Structures are given as C-alpha cells and as structure tokens.
C-alpha cells in the first residue's frame, strides 16, 4: 500500500509543475482572467472523471436537515475561497517573481495553524509557534525588499492567496466527512468556473491563446490537490500543510536558473533559510 508520505511527495511535485509552467506563460502573457477560466473549466472536467470512480461513495441520505444545510454552507464557503485563491494566485504569478511569491505563500502555514487550532481542535507547541514566527519574518523580509507597497499593489495578491487557500483547504477537509474527495474537487472547481465570468471581465476570443498551457497546469493542479486531500483525510491538517510547503525551495531554484529571477538574491537566501528553519521547527 502506498504510504501517505509518498502520496504527499507526488502532490508536491505536481503542485510545483503547476506553478512553474503557469509562471513561465503568464510572465509573457498576463491574460489572468482568461487563464483562470480555462484552468477552472479543465479542472472541473477532470474532477468529473474522478467522480465516476467514486460515485458509489456519494451519500444519498442525510440523518437530519441540519447536516444538509451544513454541507451546503461549507460548499459555498469552499467555492468562494477557491475563487479568491485562484484569482489572487494568477495575478501574483503574472507580475511577481516566483521566488518571492513562493516565500510569501509559506504564510499559509501560519493560517493553517490558526485554522487547525481554532476550528479543528489541534494544538501547537512552543517550537511550532517559533516556526510560525520565523515564517512570518521571512515573508515580511522578502515582501518589503521587493519594493512594492503591501496594500495597494500586486504584492497584495501574493499575501491574499495563501489566506484564501487555507480557508479553502480547511473547508474541504471538513467536507471530507460528508463527501468523497472527487466530489469536493468538482464542487470547488466548477463553482469557480461558473463565478469567474460573472465577477471578472473575460475576453473569450483570447482563451484559445491560453488554452493549451492552462490544460497542462490544470491537470497537474487537479491531480496534486486530489492527492493532498487524500492525505488530509487521514492526517493532521497543520502537519500536512507544513510538509507540503517544502517544495518552495524548488520554486526558488527554478526561478533563479530558468527564469533568471536574480534580484535581491541575498534577501531571498536569508528569507529562504528562515522559512526553511520555520518549516523544520514546525515539523519537529
């Protein structure tokens, strides 16, 4: 039987491919809304295929009406959280260096820890709290060195994305108590695909320009999140999210060697070391 660590490593690899490929494309073609729509539609179709294999696990009856309402509310919160994450993510990837975004995205560990403590009855040790502080310092350091105003610039999207992602994964973790993983995926992706053209301006004639790349990254992203949910279904939320962040070092190396993103190198190294130390401390 495949171990949880193997599944998690696969999820991390696919997630990195998603980020790398989309960053390369969006850096040259900042068609964020069109990319978002094509990405989410592809994810929805792929999730629908997963549903076929888990259709027998879908509940047909609920014990009471309150459970049904809880399921409905969780699904709505999940969809809007995923929409916020997807929009902020593609905006950030289009305009901010991959290494900077990757380090700031580690703040999702902080939000994950807070979510786990507040809603899932998880606890944090003193060492884990120290790790949270180290990651926060690393994110603030790399953000301020990027010469962008924190509140009124694209840097805001880099900070918002991990908050929305933490909320989305947290809601989805609770949804695993009611629904199979594939159905949760389909709800999140299809809901986002439906809302995107309603809330954001999309130039449909430009979708064909982003379609091929979006399909590739969406395939990686869907598979990555499917495997992540599988692990979350049996493991502690905060610990899994900490380990999942280890791939950010690969993101920084990819940005340095392949995207030639070499500005503020010393600051990136210091931030990377602080974030790595924070992750190791949290995982201890």
Automatic annotation (TrEMBL):
<feature type="transmembrane region" description="Helical">
    <location>
        <begin position="109"/>
        <end position="142"/>
    </location>
</feature>
<feature type="transmembrane region" description="Helical">
    <location>
        <begin position="36"/>
        <end position="56"/>
    </location>
</feature>
<protein>
    <recommendedName>
        <fullName>EamA domain-containing protein</fullName>
    </recommendedName>
</protein>
<dbReference type="InterPro" id="IPR000620">
    <property type="entry name" value="EamA_dom"/>
</dbReference>
<feature type="transmembrane region" description="Helical">
    <location>
        <begin position="177"/>
        <end position="198"/>
    </location>
</feature>
<feature type="transmembrane region" description="Helical">
    <location>
        <begin position="210"/>
        <end position="229"/>
    </location>
</feature>
<dbReference type="GO" id="GO:0016020">
    <property type="term" value="C:membrane"/>
</dbReference>
<dbReference type="Pfam" id="PF00892">
    <property type="entry name" value="EamA"/>
</dbReference>
<feature type="transmembrane region" description="Helical">
    <location>
        <begin position="235"/>
        <end position="259"/>
    </location>
</feature>
<feature type="transmembrane region" description="Helical">
    <location>
        <begin position="154"/>
        <end position="171"/>
    </location>
</feature>
<dbReference type="InterPro" id="IPR037185">
    <property type="entry name" value="EmrE-like"/>
</dbReference>
<feature type="domain" description="EamA">
    <location>
        <begin position="35"/>
        <end position="144"/>
    </location>
</feature>
<keyword id="KW-0472">Membrane</keyword>
<keyword id="KW-0812">Transmembrane</keyword>
<feature type="transmembrane region" description="Helical">
    <location>
        <begin position="68"/>
        <end position="89"/>
    </location>
</feature>
<keyword id="KW-1133">Transmembrane helix</keyword>
């Amino acid at each position: 039987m495949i171990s949880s660590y193997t599944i998690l490593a696969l999820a991390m690899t696919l997630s990195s491919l998603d980020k790398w490929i989309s960053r390369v494309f969006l850096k040259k073609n900042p068609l964020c809304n069109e990319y978002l729509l094509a990405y989410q539609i592809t994810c929805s179709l792929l999730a629908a295929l997963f549903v076929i294999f888990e259709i027998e696990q879908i509940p047909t009856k609920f014990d009471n009406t309150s459970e049904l309402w809880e399921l409905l509310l969780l699904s709505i919160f999940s969809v809007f959280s995923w929409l916020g994450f997807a929009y902020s993510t593609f905006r950030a990837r289009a305009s901010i260096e991959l290494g900077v975004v990757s380090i700031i995205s580690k703040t999702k560990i902080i939000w994950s820890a807070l979510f786990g403590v507040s809603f899932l009855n998880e606890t944090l040790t003193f060492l884990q709290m120290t790790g949270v502080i180290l990651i926060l310092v690393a994110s603030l350091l790399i953000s301020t060195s990027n010469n962008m105003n924190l509140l009124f610039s694209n840097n805001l999207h880099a900070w918002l994305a991990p908050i929305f992602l933490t909320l989305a994964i947290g809601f989805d973790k609770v949804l695993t108590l009611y629904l199979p993983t594939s159905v949760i995926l389909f709800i999140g992706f299809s809901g986002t695909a439906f809302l995107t053209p309603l809330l954001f301006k999309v130039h449909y004639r430009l979708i064909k320009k982003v379609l091929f790349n979006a399909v590739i990254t969406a395939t990686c992203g869907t598979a990555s999140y499917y495997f992540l949910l599988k692990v979350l279904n049996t493991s502690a939320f905060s610990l899994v999210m900490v380990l999942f962040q280890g791939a950010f070092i690969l993101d920084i190396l990819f940005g340095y060697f392949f995207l030639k993103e070499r500005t503020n190198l010393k600051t990136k190294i210091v931030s990377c070391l602080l974030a790595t130390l924070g992750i190791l401390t949290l995982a201890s």
